[in-house]
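User: quick one, sequence for these tokens?
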């Protein structure tokens, strides 16, 4: 009886390796994004404000958003200030999104008004950060409950 010695990797072993690698890669991506989202918000805010803590914008900045968003794929958000307030930029953050910075609007010393639709992965705090003409920052927040996630969740 003659036996044939096979050298190299068989198709079956190759496919098993690919399947195990794919599962491991997918699991690491899920673990990475789950643990990083909150840290990214704090890190992004720190970079944006250069370490300055934003002041309380209550009464000066208004963030309008639904208390409950039926579908996270389309969540209407409006950020506005009184006409006498002059700002350089408006930044919109969603704490629980995979990429927390949802948008930035750069202004030329004007009263900010930003109205847009965003996607939200899940129930989260929405932050409106306004950089004032003098370089200071104001922040106001709003909680939005999402019933169906819009970022693949």
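Assistant:
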């Amino acid at each position: 009886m003659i036996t044939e010695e096979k050298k190299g990797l068989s198709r079956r072993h190759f496919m098993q390796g690919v399947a195990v690698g794919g599962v491991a890669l997918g699991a690491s991506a899920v673990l990475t994004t789950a643990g990083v989202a909150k840290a990214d918000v704090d890190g992004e805010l720190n970079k944006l404000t250069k370490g300055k803590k934003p002041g309380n914008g209550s009464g000066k900045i208004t963030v309008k958003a639904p208390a409950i968003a039926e579908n996270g794929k389309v969540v209407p958000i409006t950020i506005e200030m009184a006409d006498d307030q002059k700002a350089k930029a408006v930044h919109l953050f969603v704490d629980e999104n995979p990429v927390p910075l949802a948008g930035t609007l750069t202004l030329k010393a004007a009263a900010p008004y930003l109205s847009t639709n965003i996607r939200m992965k899940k129930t989260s705090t929405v932050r409106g950060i306004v950089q004032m003409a003098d370089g200071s920052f104001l922040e106001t927040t709003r909680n939005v409950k999402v019933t169906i996630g819009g970022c693949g969740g």
